[in-house]
Automatic annotation (TrEMBL):
PANTHER family: CLASS II AMINOTRANSFERASE/8-AMINO-7-OXONONANOATE SYNTHASE, SERINE PALMITOYLTRANSFERASE 2. This is serine C-palmitoyltransferase. Transmembrane segments: none annotated. The gene is LOC115035829. It is a single-pass membrane protein. It comes from Echeneis naucrates. Residues 10-26 have a biased composition (Basic and acidic residues). It is found in: Endoplasmic reticulum membrane. Its EC number is 2.3.1.50. The lineage of its organism: Eukaryota, Metazoa, Chordata, Craniata, Vertebrata. Belongs to the class-II pyridoxal-phosphate-dependent aminotransferase family. It is an enzyme of class 2 (transferase). Residues 176-535 form the Aminotransferase class I/classII large domain. Keywords: Acyltransferase, Endoplasmic reticulum, Lipid metabolism, Membrane, Pyridoxal phosphate, Sphingolipid metabolism, Transferase, Transmembrane, Transmembrane helix. GO terms for biological process: ceramide biosynthetic process; sphingosine biosynthetic process.
Length: 569
């Protein structure tokens, strides 16, 4: 694994053996560090209740402007949103009362009569939200599609006669729906072209399934080629692939950390990262989203105080972050995270599920986006399910890390090998991005995605919608806030042949319901203009244009390489 110069052993000092895939290091305090920076002066020409607009100081660590916006929820909207949830809760309890006395006709939400003597499958209060709130708008999710999920798709129409508890198909297909919900960032979700042709050829040769693990008789030459290509693409020594993206996180983090280790996790990390951290048995501490002051505070406390009760140094400190956060559209402040990791001699686990292929001039993720050295990231994780139009995930880094995981990761030892046509889809699409197919198609798609993202975000803000996240993030959350508008927005958009994803509590904070658009390189300008026109129309209908177009400077301090001065004890 990559070590900072201060972490390398002195001449003649014996190295400790590799353990858990990462070199064990005592995170002792070698030097006392103190901040040395100029305070950021507040601009007095801006009102107080304005949009929070984050612009990092990019003189030292950033080679380009890093701008993210999170406009504050208008007070009236927040009050009305809380009132809406309150009214829904009151009516929910009323409906539960009517169900109890069998006045409510729809009793599907209750346990069956012949199961009342059994232990309940769910607690009544815990399932309250699902029964009385989610079911009202359930038709906005799990919509079955019957085509390739490309820039446009076909949906199967369905209806419900029991308030969305069950659905019936009408045998009608809604055709040419503009797809703003799939993670098809580079447009490789297609059934024609070189990727589809290569997958067909490999299927005829190898079949669809391998029916064995990689350690037994399931290690194909295509698997080996794919892993070498992934390592080359990322600029690291080695890589290994897994059949499921979620399991790549949840099954590999326990192999890297355990009892006596500390995991510092961003508060908005994906559920797979959270599950992996919990399964590891490590101590978990959460820092505020993308907040370097919060992360630094936890690092300092971890080094100064050590483990609880014993106060022994932590065996390992692992910082876990994502490249692009899929609900916020924000990009990790990776240069600052790496600077802190090096200062405090911690390790870094980077999840690039949404950023690989979607960011950077070469499509190589958030490391490429910031122009950083891949060796500064100890564990690089990503998925093939989005930009590559396939399935599965990967872990990449030092060769010793990968060799350790091959024999200790549950997802490597016990899982069936990846399907050959899926592997071929990854190889072909990755070669296309790298330009090794002899064309410039991949580079053009990366540039097209960047252009589409900037254009779409700019137009939404000009229309008066509140959007979250970084200007370069293809994940574009647009705020809806009120619970009634979650279902209404999804239905009204589908009526106009636009397919969108709407998200509410508990996936988001209760007053921050939103629609999440995912931009693709396959979207043409005409498609985006059509979608934007419909969004504006529905926004006027539902009164969603909350933005006040006012900007407030970030209260966060600038972060630079010269922020710290080392002082000997």
């Amino acid at each position: 694994m990559t070590e900072s110069p201060a972490a390398k052993p002195a001449e003649g000092e014996a190295r400790q053996p590799v353990k858990n895939g990462l070199k064990p290091e005592r995170n002792g305090l070698v030097k006392t560090l103190h901040r040395c920076y100029e305070p950021q002066h507040k601009r007095h020409d801006q009102p107080e209740e304005e949009e929070v607009h984050l612009a990092s100081c990019y003189g030292g660590l950033y080679g380009r402007p890093f701008i993210e916006s999170f406009e504050e929820t208008p007070m009236l909207v927040a009050v009305l949103t809380y009132m809406g949830y309150g009214i829904l809760t009151i009516f929910g309890y009323l409906r539960d009362f009517l169900r109890h006395w069998q006045i409510e006709k729809c009793s599907i939400a209750r346990e069956k009569e012949n199961q009342k003597d059994f232990v309940p499958l769910y607690q009544d209060f815990e399932n309250f939200y699902t029964r009385n709130l989610y079911m009202r708008i359930r038709d906005n999710w799990n919509r079955p599609i019957c085509s390739v999920p490309g820039a446009k798709m076909d949906l199967m129409e369905r209806t419900s006669r029991d308030y969305n508890w069950t659905f019936e198909y009408t045998d009608r297909v809604v055709q040419d729906v503009i797809n703003l919900g799939s993670y098809n960032y580079l447009g490789f979700a297609e059934n024609t072209g070189p990727c589809a042709d290569s997958a067909c050829e490999v299927t005829m040769k190898y079949g669809v399934g391998v029916t064995s693990t990689r350690q037994e008789i399931g290690n194909l030459d295509r698997h080996e080629e794919m892993e070498k290509l992934v390592a080359k693409f990322l600029g690291v020594e080695s890589a290994m692939a897994f059949g499921m993206g979620f399991a790549t996180n949840s099954m590999n983090i326990p192999a890297l950390a355990g009892k006596g280790c500390l995991i510092l996790s961003d508060e908005l990390n994906h559920a797979s990262l959270v599950l992996g951290a919990r399964l590891s048995g490590s101590t978990i501490r959460v820092f505020k989203h993308n907040n370097m002051q919060s992360l630094e505070k936890l690092l300092r406390e971890a080094i100064v105080h050590g483990q609880p009760r014993t106060h022994r140094p932590w065996k390992k400190i692992l910082i876990v972050v994502e490249g692009i956060y899929s609900m916020e559209g924000s990009i990790v402040r990776l240069p600052e995270v790496i600077a802190l990791k090096k200062r405090y001699r911690a390790y870094l686990y980077l999840d690039e599920a949404h950023s690989i292929g979607a960011l950077g001039p070469k499509g190589r993720g958030v490391v490429d986006y910031f122009g950083l050295d891949p060796c500064d990231v100890d564990v690089m994780m990503g998925t093939f399910t989005k930009s590559f139009g396939a399935a599965g995930g990967y872990i990449a880094g030092k060769r010793e890390l990968i060799e350790y995981l091959r024999s200790h990761s549950h997802s490597a030892v016990y899982a069936t090998s990846m399907s050959p046509p899926v592997v071929e889809q990854i190889i072909t699409s990755m070669k296309c991005i790298m330009g090794e197919d002899g064309t410039t198609i991949g580079c053009k798609r990366v540039r097209q995605l960047a252009d589409n993202t900037v254009y779409f975000r700019k137009r939404l803000r000009e229309m008066g919608f509140i959007t979250y996240g970084n200007n370069d993030s293809p994940v574009v959350p647009m705020m809806l806030y009120m619970p009634a508008k979650i279902g209404a927005f999804g239905r009204e958009m589908l009526k106009r042949n636009i397919g969108v994803v709407v998200v509410g509590f508990p996936a988001t904070p209760i007053i921050e319901s939103r629609a999440r658009f995912c931009i693709s390189a396959a979207h043409t300008k005409d498609m985006l203009d059509r979608a934007l026109s419909v969004i504006s129309e529905v926004g006027d209908l539902l009164q969603l244009k909350y933005s006040r177009h006012r900007i407030q400077p970030s209260p966060a301090r600038p972060f630079d390489d010269n922020v710290y001065e080392d002082i000997d004890d």
